[in-house]
Amino acid sequence: MHMANYTAADIKALRERTGAGMMDVKKALDEANGDADKAMEIIRVKGLKGATKREGRSAAEGLVAAKVVDGTVGVMVEINCETDFVAKSDKFIALADKVLETAVASGAADAESLLATDVEGKSLADYVTEEAATLGEKVVVRRVARIEGATVDAYLHKTSKDLPAQVGVLLAVDGSGEAATTVAHDVAVHTAAMAPTYLSRDEVPAETVENERRVADETARAEGKPEAALTKIVEGRLTGYFKEVALLDQSFAKDAKKSVGKVLEEAGVNATAFARFRVGA
């Protein structure tokens, strides 16, 4: 019987390098007589052939990566793959870093222009496809956010200690210095936890507000509330809605007696922009 000229440690190392499945790694090592680099190449070629098969598969795992340049420009990307096994592999994390680095350097503000950016003589889209081939999974560069301000904070949150960050936030305020830096970070952490949709109530589209008002009115009538009290009840419910969806109206996570807007005001700054990504959401 022919003895395999590689060890369990070789298999593990190649799985970590490629993120490929156990059987695929074993087959490639057999074919390459235990030569790890050759096996890597085999996995890659096989992976590229399988790329079309992966098109229809769903990629809902992955990570969020972010970087702040000079304290004033924040860039964040979400990259998806199919399994959390790949999401935590060194190779996928390195690919995400490369995508983030490209986003920072290119100034791209959306995924489409980011994917068209040149990386080592090819488009980032092609670069990602080739890397995905060795990973053996569909990889999607899903979205990118770029915000600028006097002070920008990036906060990444791990929902599981075994996985890379699943939630990321960029938050900009219009002041600089220690108080501004501290409050920007506190509000970024709050934003990660409380998931606002809009920065302020003014940003909520008029038709959304109208719809909320109509629902509140119909609900109050259905509950048999007196006509005279309706206006007040509806306004109260709208306020409640704003407290849910608008960052500045939310109760501050660290001190529920104050709104986020109030906390920023006390620090002498305004929040000017934010972005929040949650993997797959």
Short account of what is shown:
By secondary structure, the protein is α+β, with helices and mostly antiparallel strands. The chain has helices spanning 8-18, 22-31, 36-54, 84-87, 90-106, 111-116, 124-135, 178-194, 206-222, 227-245, 260-266, and strands at 61-69, 73-81, 118-119, 122-123, 140-148, 151-157, 167-173, 251-252, 255-259, 271-278.
Spatial sequence of strands, sheet with the most strands = 1-2-5
Broad CATH class of the largest domain: Alpha Beta
Name the quaternary structure.
Answer: single chain
Percentage beta strand? 15-25%
The DSSP helix count reads 11
Quick one: biggest sheet? Answer: 3 strands, antiparallel
Query: What class do helices, strands and sheet pairing give?
Result: alpha+beta
CATH architecture tag of the largest domain: 2-Layer Sandwich
Walkthrough of the structure:
The strands form four sheets. Strands 1-2-5 form a three-stranded antiparallel beta sheet. It has a three-stranded antiparallel beta sheet with strand order 6-7-10, with helices on one face. The chain has three domains: about 10-55, Orthogonal Bundle (Helicase, Ruva Protein, domain 3), CATH 1.10.8.10; about 60-200 and about 245-280, Tetrahydropterin Synthase, Chain A (2-Layer Sandwich), CATH 3.30.479; about 205-245, Orthogonal Bundle (GTP Cyclohydrolase I, Chain A, domain 1), CATH 1.10.286. Helix content is about 50%, strand content about 20%. The chain has about 280 residues and is of the alpha+beta class. Helix 1 (about 10-20) crosses helix 2, helix 2 crosses helix 3 and helix 5 (about 90-105) runs antiparallel to helix 7. It has helices at about 10-20, 20-30, 35-55, 85, 90-105, 110-115, 125-135, 180-195, 205-220, 225-245, 260-265; strands at about 60-70, 75-80, 120, 120-125, 140-150, 150-155, 165-175, 250, 255-260, 270-280.
